[in-house]
Amino acid sequence: MDIKQLKYFCTIAEEKQITKAARRLHMAQPPLSQQLKSLETELGVMLFERNGRTMELTQAGTLLLKKAERILQEMDEIRHEVKESDKGLRGKLAIGTVKSCFSYLPERIRDFRASYPAVSFLLRDGDSYQIGELVKNRDVELGIVRLPLEMREFDHIQLPDEEYVGVFHRDLAPPDMNETLQMASFEGVPLLLLHRVSGAGQYEMILEECRKHNFEPTVLCECPDVTMLLSLVSKGVGATIVPRSTLLSFQSPELAVFDIEDAEVRAKSALIWLKQRHLSNQARRFTEEFKDM
């Protein structure tokens, strides 16, 4: 078994036909069929079941595909790392971020580009669970997430805690409030709350904080996108409780923002990357922008 055979196998698995795989690999069909037969003979298993013109992975083939993709990815990383060792900083850096943490990025990207103009950026967004999956699947090298998040597979840099604020439409804000309010002010108020696609996070933390102050919140809407929630608040649909930094990326004269005097909950976040994965030079340097915050 060698790297070339694994590449052939993965291409057949993706295309589900020898003919299409051979065309994609720019080779004739008979040699490709022979390579697959040789691989199956060496392993002593059938890797595909032939269903008409379509080839479906067997259980053994599914296991090999998972392992082979990891090996090919690691080979690409080794090749890239060796090439990088003799070059200056260049290339594309892929970063995933939850929108409520986006405020960490603009100034750091600007400053980084000033030092390393040959580096460009690819940005992806999602909730913390989705960003974690993007990092695990190597779609992005770095992710900025809200905690809590299962961290066993990640290395990380903890980012500064920040307070939550209450956000109302200016005409629907609690009466006689200046710049602060208390958690009790949210009792009976239709709340629009951040809620992850999967797993527990800020939504559960806010609910627990309300219960600590002896009331059950009235949740009108749950959504993983903070800009959508703030847009709804600006239209008078309800109020929300979000980390203060989220307001930096959504400005509206219709919003009234209040500190919450008696809230114990704090928004926590982290920069994450996959453990035991080679980080590109640009990713390693970019993480330094987040140290000593």
UniProtKB/TrEMBL annotation:
Keyword Transmembrane: no
Entry GO MF terms: DNA binding; DNA-binding transcription factor activity
InterPro entries: LysR_HTH_N, LysR_subst-bd, WH-like_DNA-bd_sf, WH_DNA-bd_sf
Domain of life, per lineage: Bacteria
Keyword annotations: DNA-binding, Transcription, Transcription regulation
Domain HTH lysR-type: 1-58
Recorded GO CC terms: protein-DNA complex
UniProt record similarity statement: Belongs to the LysR transcriptional regulatory family.
Protein name (Swiss-Prot/TrEMBL): LysR family transcriptional regulator
Native source organism of the sequence: Alteribacter keqinensis
